[in-house]
Amino acid sequence: MTTLDLPRSVVLALWLAQDGVDRAAMARAVQVDDEPHTVRATVDGSEHLDGPLSLLLDVCGPGQRDVAALVPAPGDASGAPPAVSAAATTAGEALLVRSELACVAAVPGVERFGSDLEPGHLVTWDVHGVADWRTAVLGTAGSLSDAERALRQGLIDATEALVRLDVARWRPDAAEQIAELRDLDLPAWRLPDGLDGRRVRVLASAARLRGIVALATQDDGGAVNLWQADQRSTALREVDRVARRAMAAAATSIGP
After folding, report:
1. Where are the domains of the chain?
2. CA distances (Å), origin 135, targets 55, 80, 162
3. Using DSSP, how many helices (H) and how many strands (E) does the chain show?
4. How far apart are CA 183 and CA 185, in angstroms?
5. Bigger pLDDT: 137 or 181?
6. Position 15 confidence tier, pLDDT thresholds 50, 70, 90
7. What pTM was computed for the model?
8. Do residues 85 and 255 touch, judged by C-beta distance below 8 A?
9. Stretch 229-236: mean pLDDT, rounded?
10. Chain centroid offset of residue 196 CA
């Protein structure tokens, strides 16, 4: 890993919140090494099949857009509209957009192909009309200030959990990779120009915390009994919840 990673929906939300979106730059930022994404949209009974990623801009129309990205997990729907809650939880992410023309949710379906050395991904965004999602999302994700406070505590909790569970002893490779995460940044080319620095900091901190959780939970070999394994899982699951909600807060842009 040479840079921090973000869910596709989070990156797409950041771009869609901007005025005058550069469609080509947006596609590159979201797709990275994926095959070109496609969009399948069903809104108000009309269906658009196999459109490019920029079809989302056409579905929502011109003008101001309220945008959010959700990063749900089993048992935590994170404010996802009921119509897409199950799909969003399975995917681990979803995009929400509201404009004068439409109010939609988009969930990426990812099909992996190739080998571990040369993986590839086919991504199709399923877009559906939904009810106004703004109140539910704001109540779940909270503000950037809330996210910053929670992330600071989350880092403390994660550090204490790793020390208590002696990760450095039972997974020295993971301990080294966790230490390396501190020096990684978000790739600037994936972020739209002029993005608020506070949002960038929150996104980077949340990505680091999620990276720590992913590395620390790859193997339960260090727990000497099931109780310790469960304790580690519980502690790190809470840290991941904090990081996921912070990402959502940083990717949410709702106008007055």
Report:
1. 8-141, 144-248
2. 26, 11, 36
3. 10, 6
4. 7
5. 137
6. very high
7. 0.89
8. no
9. 70
10. 18
